[in-house]
Design brief:
Layout: H1 16-22, E1 43-46, E2 50-51, H2 63-76, E3 82-88, E4 91-96, H3 98-106, E5 111-117, H4 121-135, H5 140-153, H6 158-165, H7 169-177, H8 183-190, H9 196-202, H10 208-221, H11 225-236, H12 241-246, H13 252-269, E6 274-277, E7 283-286, H14 292-301
Parallel strand pairs: 2-4, 3-5
Antiparallel strand pairs: 1-5, 3-4, 6-7
Length: 305
Amino acid sequence: MANNKPTPKKSVLGRGLGALLEDSPQKNKSQGLVPVQPVVGINEIALSEIQVNPFQPRTHFDKESLQELSESIKVQGIIQPITVRKLTEGEYQLISGERRFQASKMAGLETIPAYVRTANDQQMLEMALIENIQRENLNSLEIAHSYQRLLTECNLKQEQLGDRVGKNRTTVNNYLRLLKLPPDIQAGLRDNLISMGHARAIINVEDVDKQLAIYKRTIAEELSVRKVEALVKAINSGPDEKIIEKTQIMDPVKKYEIGKIQQRLASHFGTKVQLKTDGKNKGEIKIPFGSAEDLNRILEILDII
């Protein structure tokens, strides 16, 4: 007796962007979703016919980096084609490759090689997010926001998201936790004032005011991740007034002023001078010397001998 059961469709989970581009997702036909069709060959498309991707997860493109890519394109051409979807005759929309698209315009190109796909809005969003996560130099906060959008706007579960981006559930969760931090700390993470390691340590403190205090101290004293972890551990173990008080450190403007004074002292004594303050007009100045002669030189400057 012949087996009339349909051959099960191969799952696209765990195969990243390639799966999204080559396989149509298992969606209810009543939703009217258009499956992603595989592409045959590369098309040369006029840049003027291409619209930017409205689902682009990146909000900032470094101008200097774009200029460098533009100069490279002038010499080498486009090595990796962009990916677009066709809207109407002579009208396309970017799926991935906006940096190459923008740099090609800067380089004065009129056309660009492109793969043409058929995709609905949700597939556009998912492909754009995953392509950026996999290929672009996103910071940790941008990755976290991309993960959150995949969960909420593409209706993925964390396990499915992990398969899509090639990360385990713990890693995905670590990124998502960053979005629970106060806006000031998220901004510092976005601007590379602190690293993801710093942020992951700070988030283990429940009190927002204490989180902000640790964040300010981390920047002011340029604390390592290990030192921040130790500070968080001390606070969570039962902080005394000194630990909490010490985290109320100077703001960036005062830090700049202290830095300028330190530079002037170093110039005056001809050696590296360390100037530390607790933010309450108390602190210490350290003037290192390398020999007896060097010490005498410093003492003469101080008019002690």
